[in-house]
C-alpha cells in the first residue's frame, strides 16, 4: 500500500484540525510567547542587565522546550483524545497497521513542532534583539535527533494512557521534567547525556550560541545524540506496542 | 416449558459451498474469573445480514471486538474473508469496516466529506479515487447538502449516518455495526434499515449488526444470533425463531366455566391456574402454553369429555421479542447485569 496516501491523509487531517479553529491554535502560540515574555521581562525587572548573560541560553532552551513539548504532547495527548473521540479503534483497524499509522502521525507532529519552534524562535529573537547562529544544516538535524528522545517518551506515556486512561496530570508533570533535562549540566556531569533531551540540548546551545557547525562536534558527541534519539524512540515504540497489546488483552483499547 | 431447539455452533456453514465471509471458531474471552464470551462458533455467509442480540452485559460488544481483533481472545479463531484477524490483522482489515460507537466514530471537527476522505485515506485511497463513491454515499444517506458542514453541527441522526458512511467510505465486503440505529428517530431508522438491506441485496455486502431494537433485527436480518452470558443460545432465521414460539401458546374460549374437577385437572396437567380464567362477553377464556400440537389435542379432549363447548382456539402470535426473552430467560438475573 502507498504510504504517501497515509501521510497525505494524516497531514491533511492535522492541518485542518489546526486551522479550523484558528483562535485555538493562535492561543497556544501566544500562550507560549507570553510565558517567554514573562521570563524575559520579569528577569530584566528583577536581575537588570544580568539577564543578558544567560539570555542566549534561555532562548535556545525555550526554543527546544517548545518543540519537545509539542512533539511529546502531540503523541501522548493525541492518543488520549482519539480514545475520547472514539476514533482510536478506527486507527487501529487501518490496513496500514497501527504502528505505521502512529509512525506517520509522529512524523507529521514533528513537522508541526518545527513550525511552532520556528515561530517562537523568531518571536523571541525579535523581542530580545538578540542574534543567534541559525544554520539550518546544523540546527535541523540536531533538533530532529533531540526530539527523537521526546517522541520516545511520548510513546511511553501514550502507551500508559492506552492501558490506564486518565493520566493527563502525569503528562503535565513530564513536561516540567523536560525543563530540567534541557537545562541538565551535562558538561559537569557527563552521565546526564544519556537522559532524553540532555545531549541534544547541550549541542544545540553550542551550535546556536557559539556558532559550532554540525561537523565540528566530536564524533562521540554526535554518536551519543544519535544513540539516545534512536534508543529512546525504539524503546518507546516497543513499550507502546506492548501497551496496546495489553490494552487489547484487557479489552480497554478504545475506552476512556 | 421445554426449550426450543435452535441451530448453534456454526450449523449454517453446511448450507453454502463458498468460504464464509466471517468464520468464528471456539471463541472465548475471559477477564480473570469473568467469562465474557464462552466457546462461540458460527459462520456468516457473504451478502447476508446477521443480527447479534443479547441483553446488556451478554457479551455482544466483546464478541464483536474480538472478531475485529480489538480485543485479544483467550482462545479461538476468527477469519474474515478467509484471513485470520489475529494472525494477519492488516490484511483482514482491508476487507472490513466497523462502526463501533455510533456517532463517536468520526471526527466532529472535520466536515462530512473530510471525514469520508480521511477514513478512505486510512485504507490507502486517495480522495480523487473515491470521489464518486463518496458522492454516491452522500446522496444515499441524504448528506449531500451537508457535505461541507462540520459533523459537530449536525443532528444526532445525521452524525450516525456520517459514521455509517465513513464505515463504507472505501470498498469493504464486511461491515460490523454496533447499535447503528441507537438514538435515531423513526424516519432515520427506517432509512438506515433500507440502506442496510440494499447493501446486502445489491452490493453483496456482509453485515453483522448488534441492536437492542427488535424491529430493526426483524426488518433487516437474514439470521439472528442470540448471545446470553457469553454463550450463543440461538442461531437461526428470524422466522424460524418466531415460529418456534408461535405454536406453543393458545387462547381457548369456552361457553362457560368448566366443573371444578376439570379445572383442577387443567391446572395440574397444563398449568392453567384459577387466576388464568377470565370472563368475556362470549363466556370464559384462558391461555395455555403447550409443548406441541399433540398436547393441544389432549387438552381439548379433557374439555370435551367434561362437556364444555369450545368456541374458539387462537394461536397467539409471537414475535422476535418473545423468542428473545424465552431464549435468554435461562440465565440467572445476577449474571445478566454484568458489564463487559
TrEMBL record, chain A:
<feature type="transmembrane region" description="Helical">
    <location>
        <begin position="170"/>
        <end position="192"/>
    </location>
</feature>
<keyword id="KW-0472">Membrane</keyword>
<feature type="transmembrane region" description="Helical">
    <location>
        <begin position="222"/>
        <end position="240"/>
    </location>
</feature>
<keyword id="KW-1133">Transmembrane helix</keyword>
<feature type="transmembrane region" description="Helical">
    <location>
        <begin position="21"/>
        <end position="46"/>
    </location>
</feature>
<protein>
    <submittedName>
        <fullName>ABC-2 type transport system permease protein</fullName>
    </submittedName>
</protein>
<feature type="transmembrane region" description="Helical">
    <location>
        <begin position="101"/>
        <end position="126"/>
    </location>
</feature>
<feature type="transmembrane region" description="Helical">
    <location>
        <begin position="58"/>
        <end position="80"/>
    </location>
</feature>
<keyword id="KW-0812">Transmembrane</keyword>
<feature type="transmembrane region" description="Helical">
    <location>
        <begin position="138"/>
        <end position="163"/>
    </location>
</feature>
<dbReference type="InterPro" id="IPR051784">
    <property type="entry name" value="Nod_factor_ABC_transporter"/>
</dbReference>
UniProtKB/TrEMBL annotation, chain B:
<dbReference type="GO" id="GO:0016887">
    <property type="term" value="F:ATP hydrolysis activity"/>
</dbReference>
<dbReference type="InterPro" id="IPR003439">
    <property type="entry name" value="ABC_transporter-like_ATP-bd"/>
</dbReference>
<keyword id="KW-0547">Nucleotide-binding</keyword>
<feature type="domain" description="ABC transporter">
    <location>
        <begin position="22"/>
        <end position="254"/>
    </location>
</feature>
<comment type="similarity">
    <text>Belongs to the ABC transporter superfamily.</text>
</comment>
<keyword id="KW-0067">ATP-binding</keyword>
<dbReference type="InterPro" id="IPR050763">
    <property type="entry name" value="ABC_transporter_ATP-binding"/>
</dbReference>
<keyword id="KW-0813">Transport</keyword>
<dbReference type="InterPro" id="IPR003593">
    <property type="entry name" value="AAA+_ATPase"/>
</dbReference>
<dbReference type="InterPro" id="IPR027417">
    <property type="entry name" value="P-loop_NTPase"/>
</dbReference>
<protein>
    <submittedName>
        <fullName>ABC-2 type transport system ATP-binding protein</fullName>
    </submittedName>
</protein>
<dbReference type="Pfam" id="PF00005">
    <property type="entry name" value="ABC_tran"/>
</dbReference>
<dbReference type="GO" id="GO:0005524">
    <property type="term" value="F:ATP binding"/>
</dbReference>
